[in-house]
Amino acid sequence: MQKWNLVFDVALCTGCQNCVLAVQDEYQGNEFPGYAAEMPRHGPKWFDIERRERGEFPAVDVAHRARCCQHCDQAPCREAASGGAVKKRDDGIVVIDPVLSRGQKPIADACPFGAAHWDEARAITQHWNFDAHLLDAGWKEPRPVQACPTGALRSLKLEDEAMQRLAAEQGLVRTAGGEARGTRVWYRNLTRFTHAFAAGTLVGLEAGLDACVAGAQVRLARAGEPVASARSDAFGDFRFDHLPPASEGWRIDIEAHGYHLRIVEFNLKASCWLGEIRLEPA
Asked: 258 with 216, same domain?
């Protein structure tokens, strides 16, 4: 049986909010019986893009992550519901019935991903239902995917085995806690959002003047074990990404032609710039 999956690539998202606006446009002021009640104009967004800044000047970047219903195969909201208020469809989509869920706040409270929202005015739990009403009407993809200009969002309808193979081939992962629940939202390059980087700038002397050191070999190790290597660019900059934050015992060894070996040890609280690292002429 083919089932729907959503894939979000952190590296491709620019934070334009087109997907967010597409969902708001679809549900604000509109009701879809059996699928969803009207989305409140003010309140939590059913589909949202989280933003995270990493690093410190001059080494700074911004990453984004989609936040929405994960359409769990073992859905906590369904476990908390009564009277068939939450349905897990054969195509993998979770739908919270806007009538049957009335008065059942435990449905919203049960979501470990913060993607089920309690509508106090209507006394119902609401979420992004993968635009199930549109897919049932023949649409090939949900509106957030249709609205994404960079290809950061993709929707795939595959058998579970095929999806697992694709995940392995493309390095797709689930969000924290998603493996146990069988979430159907997958992330690519997620460490760009969840992990840290360490960067620095190499400076040496040429003709008595400060100069960028390009092409230096920079090796990263932790607790004596090699982790990665890189070369400094034309501006003397280097960078190591996908590092676990709040970690200790890091060391970089820097080798450059005409300079002595330089060793820098550091602990990593969050993404950081190690500053200008001065190399001594040999």
From this structure: yes
